[in-house]
Amino acid sequence: MVTFVDRVTLHLRAGKGGNGCVSVRREKFKPLAGPDGGNGGHGGDVVLVSDPQVTTLLSYHHSPHRSAGNGGFGMGDNRSGAIGESLELTVPVGTVVKDPSGDVLVDMLEPGMRFVVAPGGLGGLGNASLANPKRKAPGFALLGTPGWEGDVLLELKTVADVALVGYPSAGKSSLIAAISAARPKIADYPFTTLHPNLGVVQAGDVRFTVADVPGLIEGASEGKGLGLEFLRHVERCTALVHVLDCATLEPGRDPLSDLDVILAELAAYPVPDGQVSLLERPQLVALNKVDVPEAKDLADLVRPELEARGFRVFDISTVSHEGLRNLTFALGDLITRHRVEQASAPAPERIVIRPKAAERDFSVRVEGGTYGNIYRILGEKPVRWVQQTDFQNEEAVGYLADRLERLGVEDQLFRSGATPGATVVIGEGDGIIFDWEPSVTSAAELMTAPRGTDPRLLQSTRRTTSERRERYHDSMDAKAAARAELEAERRAERGQDGGDAE
């Protein structure tokens, strides 16, 4: 049964924003007292919170799909929709949050850190918020936008002061059990430790944490054994303790060869930029199991060579507790010096947040298509406006056209070579596809058409004043010509009658 998980993929969905409301207030003697549609509520966020009481990502391994609450719909009488309930997910301190491509989003190093990993959608505006002196009673409202939906990778890197490294069955779990209150599983077979164990050690006035990292073998940095899976837990440690087994019975193994293998694996493991490599950190050597006579003799034999390499060597026994006090106090001195150096280090550069420089809110990308060029409009604002538009409402479509025109989309399409009737797509993928017809002017605010309609989408047959005047003049000219022709005929008839009488 799995009891420890340090890497998991979360499938998250933030809450969707609620739709705005279309409503007109009706009172006695005031059947149309003005719009009163409320706004929709914002969708809930998904927030990661670092909690020192959490030590594993096990709960997310069993249930990786998490979602926040949706925002409520707006209502009449200027009532806004309820805000969606946010979802807080607690993670261990030291959790690194990455996107699916592996880029680091945030490193949860400090207790209590909060990170909005999936922002909720925006609530749509009701027609009361869309009203203005020129559009007094909008017949439409904006829709809520969907919340962020996608995957994130959580990777736990243990935050400890000291890491115990060494071959399987070297006695690392026994050592952490002897110097702290931790009670890891201990057995006489390799790879007993399947996940890092943490213990708190008190050495005089100094308190520090020790991590027992699962055993390393040759080739661990290339994926052999369990070492590669857990070497990342060594990244955040201040000091390393090489636990060497002086009582091993395996042929071809001795403390010196074991140390060489471990050092080679630590050197082959790449640490993130800005961190000190594993081999450059303070290192101590603990020759374990010296309670066995043969192991004591071997420890006396290899100690001079280890000291010649520059290591501080301690003979220890987790059974008799020999040498453990000296080891813990030496580690306490290392941790104390490190903390003093950190405290005296210059303060990090102050971060100044300045407003973002003016940027174009959109871009037009020309793509080749089977039946001609496709002009794709990309940008946060155009995509969001499309999501907020109810395409079943012609007035809402006209409002979208006005917003895009004011943003400068039409001018940019002209510059990109678009012609009337060209195919335009808003957003990535399929997006919203339409045939572009440039507008001469924006007149949504001046329209007096029935609510919910846009006369610009209709083929108007109403004649203009000049057309009526021209038709009237043509009619008068035709009547005058008909009267003249009739008068001419009458004169001709009278002339004929007079000639016959003579």
Automatic annotation (TrEMBL):
SUPFAM superfamilies: Obg GTP-binding protein C-terminal domain (SSF102741), Obg GTP-binding protein N-terminal domain (SSF82051), P-loop containing nucleoside triphosphate hydrolases (SSF52540). NCBIfam families: Obg_CgtA, Obg_CgtA_exten, PRK12296.1, PRK12297.1, PRK12299.1. Residues 450-502 are annotated as: Disordered. Residues 464-502 have a biased composition (Basic and acidic residues). Its EC number is 3.6.5.-. Its cofactor is Mg(2+). Residues 2-159 form the Obg domain. InterPro entries: G_OBG (IPR031167), GTP-bd (IPR006073), GTP-bd_Obg/CgtA (IPR014100), GTP-bd_prot_GTP1/OBG_C_sf (IPR036346), GTP1-OBG_CS (IPR006074), GTP1_OBG_dom (IPR006169), GTP1_OBG_dom_sf (IPR036726), OBG_GTPase (IPR045086). Mg(2+) binds at S173, T193. GO terms for cellular component: cytoplasm. Monomer. It comes from Microbacterium terrae. Gene3D superfamilies: GTP-binding protein OBG, C-terminal domain, GTP1/OBG domain, P-loop containing nucleotide triphosphate hydrolases. Keywords: Cytoplasm, GTP-binding, Hydrolase, Magnesium, Metal-binding, Nucleotide-binding. Pfam families: DUF1967, GTP1_OBG, MMR_HSR1. Residues 160-336 form the OBG-type G domain. One of its GO terms (molecular function) is GTP binding. One of its GO terms (biological process) is ribosome biogenesis. This is GTPase Obg.
